[in-house]
Write a structure and sequence with these properties.
431 residues; alpha/beta; eight-stranded parallel beta barrel; 14 helices; globular; binds 2-acetamido-2-deoxy-beta-D-glucopyranose; Glycosphingolipid_Hydrolases; signal
């Protein structure tokens, strides 16, 4: 639309110091999330919009809200459009956390250009968000590391660099399944589709393992070795990718931040934060002030202070970059959402950065989702619930077998129904 664009341009021209040359609607100022137009402190609340497989980002077309009320899960939407934004804003939300998966964004290899089809979709969501005053946090999403480990995240080509001799090999030390398949001796089944970008949704062992109990994939030796590679030799390759994302979104006013990794499944805290620092540095080449989100293991917020961090890392966190934020999740660890929020806020204060509860789950009632959202609000902490829609198809075996136990379904396919895909809700709101 022309008018809002024009008024934004005028605002930029006549804006007082606040914007300081930044195109962003929301910036971090003095360690707080700030409305860059008014200079006032704000709280960002919203929903996750994450598509875990091709085409990776929902389309903006469509004339209806993405309806997720179908409890039998016989439908799924592929869009995030103006009706979804109006719907979310009507529920009192002002942001989304938009998943961008490395495998989808940079499919061609290390240091290559980003996928132009993905960038078109990303642009479209960010432009629409701008038009309707919705803010967007870019979430470099992964679960269970990547397709080679039956999850999504790092590209297959990255796994081939990290664990070249283990592509299509049994994941270790997973025991064989109840039906006797997919143990460490079932090399034949594990080898199906080895090296395929869609190994995670095509390989039968992956399909049997990346449903309900997918969490065990993150502690396999293949997952852990890949993360260690990412934190050492592969660090520059990752930083290059993150920098290119910053370059792609820097001129979009709605894009207020880049969260470097969803739920990093790794425990080497010092190496991990060194990697965050390299990635943030790559971002700064293209954007002086977009927020950059750091996180701890699996986005847990524990009272661990500077544990295992080198002095220069702590210096970077506290004084080296004033546009960092701390991203955390709550799904039951530590015991209460209040504890998680307290821990995150304390760490944020220590490091001089704002925090955001970028995921929490569980709808309805007072006991879980709403209790979490309320606790965050009470502490002045923004949050984004998991999640707006499942964004994947097919959800279940067409022949009625348990998920993952049918022949590879053909026909329509989008996203990836893996690693915690269920429970989308386009109308989550608490009293
Ligand atoms: C910032 O303030 C302007 C003016 O009040 C308002 O229109 C806009 O929605 C605010 N942005 C955010 C992200 O709160
Ligand atoms: C795998 O096969 C070897 C011999 O081929 C056998 O000794 C071993 O017990 C098998 N392991 C499992 C876990 O089935
Ligand atoms: C969505 O969340 C609301 C609570 O705000 C709940 O009443 C509703 O049942 C949820 N819908 C689904 C499909 O889970």
């Amino acid at each position: 639309m022309f008018l809002p664009r024009l008024s934004l341009t005028l605002l930029l021209l006549f804006a007082p110091l606040g914007k300081a040359g930044s195109p962003r609607n929301v910036i971090i100022k003095d360690g707080k999330w700030t409305n860059s137009t008014t200079g006032g402190v704000i709280r960002l609340d919203g929903a996750n919009v994450v598509m875990k497989g091709d085409p990776w980002i929902p389309a903006v077309e469509g004339s209806t809200v993405c309806d997720t009320t179908d409890v039998d899960q016989q439908t799924s939407c592929q869009t995030f459009n103006e009706f979804d934004i109006k719907n979310l804003k009507g529920l009192g939300y002002n942001m989304i956390r938009l998943g961008v998966v490395w495998a989808g964004a940079q499919p061609d290899g290390p240091f290559t250009e980003l996928s132009s089809t993905l960038l078109e979709r990303l642009d479209a969501v960010l432009d629409l968000a701008e038009e309707y005053d919705l803010q967007v946090l870019i979430d470099l999403h992964q679960d269970a590391v990547g397709t080679a480990v039956c999850g999504e995240g790092v590209p297959m080509w990255f796994s081939q660099l990290a664990i070249p001799n283990q592509i299509g090999k049994p994941l270790w030390p997973l025991p064989k399944l109840d039906d006797g398949t997919c143990g460490r001796n079932d090399t034949e089944t594990w080898a199906e589709y080895a090296g395929d970008n869609d190994y995670n949704i095509k390989n039968l062992c992956c399909r049997k393992l990346n449903g309900e109990n997918w969490g065990q994939l993150t502690s396999t030796s293949q997952a852990q070795e890949t993360m260690l590679y990412l934190f050492t030799k592969g660090r520059d390759v990752f930083a290059d990718f993150v920098g290119k994302i910053a370059q792609a979104v820097n001129d979009k006013p709605a894009a207020f931040g880049i969260e470097l990794m969803n739920e990093p499944p790794a425990i080497e805290r010092n190496l991990m934060y060194k990697t965050w620092q390299s990635a943030a540095k790559a971002v700064r080449v293209f954007s002086s002030d977009i927020a950059v989100g750091v996180a701890d293991t699996a986005n847990g917020a524990l009272p661990i202070g500077d544990l295992d961090l080198r002095e220069e890392t702590v210096e970077w966190l506290t004084d080296g970059d004033q546009y960092l934020f701390y991203a955390f999740h709550w799904y039951g660890t530590p015991k209460t959402p209040d504890q998680a929020i307290d821990n995150a806020v304390s760490l944020g204060e220590k490091w001089g950065m704002p925090v955001h509860l970028t995921e929490f789950g569980g709808y309805g009632g007072d006991s879980y989702g709403c209790a979490t959202q309320r606790a965050a609000k009470a502490a002045g902490v923004g949050s984004s619930y998991w999640h707006y829609s499942d964004y994947c198809w097919p959800k279940h075996c067409p022949d009625g077998s348990p998920d993952g136990y049918c022949p590879l379904p053909d026909g329509d396919r989008w996203g990836a129904c893996i690693t915690g895909w269920g429970s989308g809700n386009h109308s989550f709101a608490c009293p």
